[in-house]
């Protein structure tokens, strides 16, 4: 899938898509709670009320940059808490190349945050070593995000992810620690959207009067547009994540901003519109 925002193109490269199995992430999204939200069907939920979700990367091409936003799970990784995310052998790089983006052609990688499903293809296995997948890119990691995950915490799984998907980038000298209002060229800037993680950011596209927003995980699924109070079990600070969602929805509603969801399946993109006292996504 590909979208045009002014002089910028955004291309979705899917690693995997699933229907159902998301209750561990959004436990309030029962089938009974999802079925009344008719606008979620068919793209974001099926006829039985099961959520549809995707793990994908976006390639953002501007007149001066080729940016990969979030790098999914990656192949050959181990020690992941979700069993189906271990030892993957998926055609992500072939699909990326088929979309017109050889990995060597990427000049920037942005990780909205450093969770497992956003850093995996930072690296690839070469013999017994993890090496940068995008050897000609600068990898942008949030300064606060990096400080959090390198400081004291109780997540052994994150330490494993850091060791195989983040540390090799630092060792190769390709990492750049950035502030949450960082700008990447004339068209691309970052917006702080904390709560899911301490240093979480979203990506704003502005070109020739057109606008877009790549969400990252300040929301995982469009059902959280109908229910901003539905926190993800993966949120670091549920109250802060809730506040971020409401702040962002109020800023985006009824404006011509194309919202591209980092885990949105199906149509993947749409516009936020008012719906009574709340909001919905119009695709």
User: What is the alpha-carbon Rg in Å?
Assistant: 18 Å
Number of helices: 7
Task: List the uncertain runs.
Answer: none
Dominant shape: globular
The H-level CATH homologous superfamily, spelled out, is Ribonuclease Z/Hydroxyacylglutathione hydrolase-like
Helix content: 10-25%
The top-level CATH class is: Alpha Beta
Q: Which CATH architecture is right? A: 4-Layer Sandwich
What series of H and E elements makes up the topology? EEHEEHEEEEHHHEEEEEHHEEE
Chain-wise SSE layout:
Elements: E1 2-5, E2 8-19, H1 31-34, E3 52-61, E4 66-69, H2 92-98, E5 108-110, E6 123-126, E7 129-132, E8 138-142, H3 143-150, H4 156-165, H5 167-171, E9 175-178, E10 183-184, E11 188-192, E12 201-207, E13 210-214, H6 223-226, H7 238-252, E14 257-260, E15 269-275, E16 278-282
Parallel strand pairs: 4-5, 5-8, 8-9, 13-14
Antiparallel strand pairs: 1-2, 2-3, 3-4, 6-7, 10-11, 11-12, 12-13, 14-15, 15-16
Question: What can you tell me about this protein's structure?
Answer:
- With about 280 residues, this protein is of the alpha+beta class.
- The chain has a single domain, classed as Ribonuclease Z/Hydroxyacylglutathione hydrolase-like (Metallo-beta-lactamase, Chain A).
- The chain is about 20% helix and about 30% strand.
- It contains 7 helices and 16 strands.
- Strands 1-2-3-4-5-8-9 form a 7-stranded mixed sheet.
- The model has no long low-confidence stretch (mean pLDDT about 95).
């Amino acid at each position: 899938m590909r979208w045009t925002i002014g002089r910028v193109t955004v291309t979705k490269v899917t690693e995997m898509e699933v229907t159902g199995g998301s209750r561990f992430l959004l436990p309030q999204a029962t089938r009974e709670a999802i079925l009344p939200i008719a606008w979620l069907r068919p793209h974001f939920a099926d006829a039985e009320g099961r959520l549809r979700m995707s793990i994908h990367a976006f390639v953002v091409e501007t007149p001066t940059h080729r940016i990969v936003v979030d790098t999914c799970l990656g192949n050959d990784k181990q020690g992941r808490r979700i069993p189906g995310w271990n030892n993957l052998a998926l055609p992500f790089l072939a699909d990326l190349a088929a979309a017109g983006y050889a990995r060597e052609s990427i000049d920037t990688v942005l990780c909205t945050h450093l969770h497992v499903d956003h850093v995996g293809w930072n690296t690839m296995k070469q013999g017994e070593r993890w090496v940068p997948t995008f050897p000609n890119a600068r990898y942008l990691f949030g300064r606060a995000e990096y400080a959090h995950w390198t400081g004291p915490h109780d997540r052994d799984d994150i330490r494993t992810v850091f060791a195989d998907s983040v540390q090799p980038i630092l060792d190769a000298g390709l990492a750049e620690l950035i502030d949450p209002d960082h700008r990447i060229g004339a068209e691309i800037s970052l917006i702080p959207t904390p709560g899911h993680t301490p240093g979480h950011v979203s990506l704003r596209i502005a070109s020739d009067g057109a606008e877009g927003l790549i969400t990252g995980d300040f929301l995982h699924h469009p059902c959280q547009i109908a229910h901003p109070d539905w926190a993800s079990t993966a949120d670091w600070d549920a109250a802060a994540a809730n506040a971020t969602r409401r702040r962002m929805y109020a800023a985006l509603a009824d404006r011509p901003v194309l919202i591209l969801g980092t885990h949105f399946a199906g149509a993947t993109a749409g516009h936020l519109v008012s719906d009574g006292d709340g909001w919905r996504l119009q695709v």
